[in-house]
Records
---
Amino acid sequence: MIENNAYGQTTPSEDIELTHVEQGSPMGEVLRRFWQPVALSEELTDLPKKVKILCEELVLFRTKQGKVGCVLPHCSHRGTSLEWGRIEENGIRCCYHGWLYQPDGKCVEMPCEPSGVCERMNVHQPAYPTTEYGGLVFVYMGPAGTEPLLPMYDIIDTRGRDDVVLKGMKLWEGQGIGYVQDCNWLQNHENAVDPWHLLILHQMISGDQFTSGLMHGGKPTIEFIDTPLGVAYEFRRELLNKNRVIRSLEAILPNVILVPNLHEPGDAAKYQEKCTECTWTVPVDNEHLTAFSIVAWPLENGQPKKGWKPGTDTRTALRPGSTTNPLSYEQRQRRPDDREAQEGQRPIAVHALEKLATSDRGIVMLRRKLREQIKAVKDNKDPSNVVRDPDLNRAIPTRSWNTILVPKEAGVTAEA
Ligand code: FES
Ligand SMILES: [Fe+2]
């Protein structure tokens, strides 16, 4: 308990079980049972890339032969960071005395040593397994040898499809500067199942930030749904143009969100138009997060469709980088956004002080299901959504879409 103010009130500690992500922490161990994205494939060029995820610093590299490695930064010899290393044909060479490490961490050359020493010493730089899919580099930081499959959710499983190409993106990044938000990952993740804030923060307070037809109309009804993968909501309302929208959004345990098109104009009938990107909320450490997405980009004449934009590419692209926010304090006060709202909850929200109400049902459901995952890991079981059977890893059905009903169709499905 920390002394808080002149009235002698105290601030309880944050909910460590759900929020902390370091090695050995309950949620950190859940997140380590899943492949986590750490970089765009295109970011691994002829230089190593240092990243931080789940409170651990890592050095990523792509050998000249194209293999991706992920090692702990400090060289096993005398600790120089491998971020200064040189990428070679089959590994990364430490800049200091030239020890050469393969992507799996095995040291295969010690140029300052007599022959035979490298073999005898048999050094392994600690390394995590990596995989690449959809333009993203993923790392598995769970116990050695327990890597599951990368879940093939329907929107990113392109087997048998020729209408999209997958692109790895940092959707909220802007151009070239890594997007980092200065608060705990869960504040960002659970925001996905907080649809009521769309009507207040993004409409009433800041204007229609999503340039969408969906933000104006009659009073919506919102239902929260316990799904096989996590938690979803359905948002239904009559729009100003008398069409009706049914919008379903799903948060997949533990840290994936599927946001259907935020720019939907709501002017033409459509049935369950699927969201086009799969986004991971990635904890950097306990007080910072970033995000990576695989975007199913539509093809036109065999080429990525020009002028098309991912559905979650919001104007928050104006705010790249945690320390390079180009907006003034006054601008942020006049037009607060997700970032202000989420960071404003404290670096790590204090759940014990919250007064949860009926509109927070999605948050409550999500937290409860995350605790079930924590319990599974404590019981030495796979948490839900770990996939190991390739036959079950095909177009896993998800629940994020927009449906627009025009009046005559609305009559047919009046109960919707
Ligand atoms: S510190 Fe890396 S080779 Fe010496
Ligand atoms: Fe938002």
---
Amino acid sequence: MTKNKIHVDTALLPGGWAASVVIETGDDGAILSVTADSAPQGCDHIGGIAVPGMPNLHSHAFQRAMAGLAETAGPPGSGDDSFWTWRKVMYGFVERLAPPHVAAIARQVYVEMLKAGYTAVGEFHYLHHGVDGEPYDDPAEMSERVIAAAADAGIGITHMPVLYAHGDFGGAPAQTGQHRFLNDGERFIRLVETLRARHGGGSGGDTVIGIAPHSLRAVTPELLRGVVEAFTAMDSPKMEGGPIHIHIAEQAKEVDDCLAWSGRRPVAWLLDQGMVDRRWCLVHATHMDGDETAALARSGAVAGLCPTTEANLGDGLFPAPRYLGQGGRMGIGSDSHVSVSVAEELRWLEYGQRLVHRKRNLLAGGPSQKEDQKKGQENQEDQADQAETRSTGGNLYRLALAGGAQALGRPTGAIAPGRRADLVFLDENHASLVGKTGDAILDGWLFAAQGNPVRHVMAGGRFAVRDGRHEGEEGIAAAYGETLKALMAG
Ligand SMILES: [Zn+2]
């Protein structure tokens, strides 16, 4: 195996910040060894600051092309703009997308993610079929376009085909605009099996295949149980189980409709089924009461938080202080891609709480939070390797690394032997970072950077971004531009 050695001045390791660090990577994309206080001889001397690359646990790649198109209020009397009016715009946009469009858009947004410091993406993929609602000759056509786009950009992907079978709670028929998303359980499982056969199901490589029941609106209880059982049976004995993601409680209306249907709120209903464990990621668990918050924290599942999209859509505010205070796991996603920025997601996670509670540093963790974690949680191994910290940026960055890695079923999120070599190199001379040490580096980046201090990005052992540039970015941006012009003209 070919070995590569890089040397950095400072690195964020599982035990804390270390100086003069040599990181050795293998040609399989994994980290072989990490040695602090080591001389740069024989290394590619990168200098600067290395931190683990951030997993982006929730993406709908095609939505990048419609970001900004739903920021116009309707005419007077047309009703309030909401998630539901945004969804109408999105459905209209979906009608125009062909496979080459999706490929060009996905390549563009994946390059943007890498430049922002995301080294892996969880693609919650629901655009399966042709404009007429019929599967393509290869039913996995759209999935393949997205997976190939990730490979072209050089970002790791956990691809999760979405099961969308119904239009609302209780098995209601699908609605206008949803026909390109629809599968029954059988056709869905065939799609997952096909993708796993082609790309491998296990973690460790660049592609991981999971599943995503779209929401409780889109499946019946029997269908949900059936596909989770079928997917679980597919897992190789070596794996803990592949990722299972679901949109859960994004909208107040969704909670009301779920109550009317079942007498239970969405998170409570799902947890009642006895299926949720650490394979699961509950995306937009925005609307939870105190009992649901505590139960989700205890479950070992990850809450998938998308603060900039949730703000853009007017969803509501996730109860982060209470959830994290009870040891809940979380990761971040750029979702609709109104923002593709690690810093903005984590900053707005904290800022939303500051605005509501009129206090500061609400998500800094600390002694009281650690106590609650000890009481509340069994699976602590991922969080045990966090250094003691009271830095808000430091705490949020570490939590989102651990939760993101878990949710995507990927050995990433730490600079340690056996993990993927997913690394972000920050510019130590950037105005937001210069002179800072330890977690103040993360606070400077997340809360105070004008522009982007990410200098280089390595994903799976390969440099995808060097000196702020992705090697394919001009061609990818040009193809994206042509695609956008065609879509907007059509
Ligand atoms: Zn989503």
